């Protein structure tokens, strides 16, 4: 399984915006040159008082600024959007960049206010997710979808051109609902803050549930997102990491410290090594402390330390 794991780095639009346009292109080109295998961006509409960025808008920007690396979005707050408009965005984006997008979706809920300001009842987020995934999967084929659900009712809702190839849809979450959703409606699972044992067990259960319901022939791709911080001084890196994560999630350091390594690339590689044999195909780093060029080089160094082959 080790040979199949791809290493990527999350790029924040506010970080990239500090550089002039030619430097943005150079930096993202550097990511491919040093052996990273994908870029990543997150998604929030109005998180904890207004923080956020639009995941598909940023994915389009990252794809347009470089010509080789795919872009992964995660976690996209799908219940905050109408599925037909999301399919339209995927169709339009993939006309220019077919096969270069992976969409990881989640139900959200860490900040219920984020849903309320979008006019969404937080109690409906699970049902919205299930119905949206069903609709998007069908619409990406070009089918005129008629759908009658608890949330959405559509009659001959078509989106052309078809998204070809279809965008892989990964499901985030840690509970039974996420497991069922991944097995029945997803192309894989996207983990965060989970132990290697938990990741391995969850992926095995996804396989078992998919087999139970007769869903076969899926080219599964499972990933994990790792918040981390690089730097020669582990204590300083840990403090910087804690500050960044507390600013985003409004949680104390203890809530995520166990699953968020800080220090040299060697230390981060040591933390990540047990995940290589869990069944994941993608490992994404989120880091905000160093300048972007240094973060790119550090993530690439982790790939080498893990013994992963250079991309062809």
TrEMBL record:
Pfam families xrefs: Bac_luciferase
Keywords: Oxidoreductase
Location of the Luciferase-like domain: 24-245
Transmembrane segments: none
Superkingdom to which the source organism belongs: Bacteria
Name the record gives this protein: Luciferase-like domain-containing protein
Originating species: Protofrankia coriariae
Lineage, uppermost ranks: Bacteria, Bacillati, Actinomycetota, Actinomycetes, Frankiales
């Amino acid at each position: 399984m080790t040979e199949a794991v791809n290493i990527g780095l999350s790029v924040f639009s506010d970080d990239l915006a500090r550089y002039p346009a030619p430097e943005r292109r150079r930096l993202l080109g550097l990511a491919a040159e040093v052996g990273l295998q994908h870029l990543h961006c997150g998604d929030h509409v109005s998180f904890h008082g207004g923080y956020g960025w639009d995941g598909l808008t940023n994915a389009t920007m990252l794809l347009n600024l470089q010509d080789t690396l795919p872009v992964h979005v995660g976690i996209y707050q799908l219940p905050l959007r109408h599925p037909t408009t999301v399919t339209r965005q995927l169709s339009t984006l993939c006309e220019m960049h077919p096969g270069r997008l992976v969409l990881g979706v989640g139900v959200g809920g860490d900040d219920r206010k984020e849903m309320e300001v979008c006019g969404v009842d937080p109690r409906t987020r699970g049902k919205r997710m299930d119905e949206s995934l069903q609709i998007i999967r069908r619409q990406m084929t070009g089918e005129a979808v008629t759908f009658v659900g608890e949330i959405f009712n559509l009659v001959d809702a078509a989106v052309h051109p078809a998204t070809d190839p279809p965008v892989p849809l990964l499901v985030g979450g840690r509970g039974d609902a996420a497991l069922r959703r991944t097995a029945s409606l997803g192309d894989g699972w996207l983990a965060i803050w989970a132990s290697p044992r938990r990741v391995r067990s969850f992926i095995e259960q996804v396989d078992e549930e998919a087999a139970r319901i007769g869903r076969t022939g899926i080219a599964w791709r499972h990933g994990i997102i790792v918040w981390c911080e690089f730097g020669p001084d582990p204590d300083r890196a840990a403090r910087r990491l804690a500050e960044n994560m507390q600013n985003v999630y409004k949680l104390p350091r203890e809530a995520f410290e166990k699953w968020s390594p800080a220090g040299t690339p060697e230390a981060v590689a040591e933390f990540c090594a047990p995940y290589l044999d869990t069944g994941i195909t993608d490992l994404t780093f989120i880091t905000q402390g160093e300048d972007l060029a240094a973060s790119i080089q550090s993530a690439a160094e982790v790939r080498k330390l893990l013994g992963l082959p250079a991309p062809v």
